[in-house]
Amino acid sequence: MKEKQIITGELTLVNHQSVFSLEGKIALITGGGSGIGYDIAQCMTHAGATVIITGRREHALQEATETLGESAHYVVNDVTELNSLEGLVETIEATYGPIDILVNNAGINMKKPALEVTDADFDRIIHTNLNAVFALTRACAKRMVARQSGSILMISSMAAYYGIDRVVAYAASKSGVEGMVKVLASEFSKFNVRVNAIAPGFIETNMMKTAMSSDPDRMNKALNRTPMGKFGKPQDIGWAAVFLASEAAGYITGASLPVDGGNSIGF
Ligand code: NDP
Hints:
The chain is an alpha/beta fold. It has one domain (15-261): NAD(P)-binding Rossmann-like Domain (Rossmann fold). It is 44% helix and 17% strand. The strands form two sheets. The protein has a seven-stranded parallel sheet with strand order 5-4-3-6-7-8-9, sandwiched between helices. Helix 2 crosses helix 9 (234-245) and helix 5 runs parallel beside helix 6. The termini are far apart. Bound molecules: NADPH dihydro-nicotinamide-adenine-dinucleotide phosphate. NADPH dihydro-nicotinamide-adenine-dinucleotide phosphate (NDP) binds at residues 30-31, 33-37, 54-57, 60, 78-80, 105-108, 128, 155, 157, 200, 202-203, 205-208.
């Protein structure tokens, strides 16, 4: 698509369609076979990107790529196998080309009173939601830094913003991700690599259904402090991801964008 530029004094406006476009970009989305990751993949393909989704369940990935269409591909990968991540990036780049966009979406939750959380429980959540995010980010960022181009997105949570009871390990992992975003954004800015987070509110996916289904009090509490009075859809996160990965967000780095119907500012 040819860019139409309008120059007004010092202001350069680029045609709004192309500035939000991901045409020609390659995006790696972990956990893209279902939930929020699937919708991020769908929104990104709509915006013109080629997406490579990963996850542990091959049938889910296969079904997802069939629905997403020919610009979607999958690789079966468990992000907790940290030793596999350099190889994953290498294979994807050799097959599809340089990764322009990394979306660290894969994540797990666990609801338990803090005093019942074992070291093994805590470790499992931190390993998936934090250690794996860092290891994969490092593998992709090495190449992005060398190419002086890239956009990295983390999926954080309201659990990093305020105290939600019974998710101590999950909150610690997402708070770690928020810290990582600031440090990496600061280190990578001079290499033209941006790093941002999206902090979803309560979004209708299996993860949320599991956390809410047997806990009507929690569901009502979440809804009551959400000014928009409804839960979000995975697509709400998908479009925000397109924006943050696009040129339209070219001066945004180190940010955490709440996509939460106002939940984080609700009274
Ligand atoms: P789901 O449980 O619906 O989906 C999680 C996805 O992650 C699945 O596709 C799963 O695929 C993948 N995944 C999990 N573990 C691994 C692993 N070890 N390796 C590779 N892939 C893995 O969750 P959501 O879509 O709701 O959550 C997506 C992200 O959004 C998470 O980071 C979550 O913390 C965050 N989030 C969600 C909120 C919500 O309200 N839903 C709110 C705030 C944040 P597979 O099982 O095939 O491996």
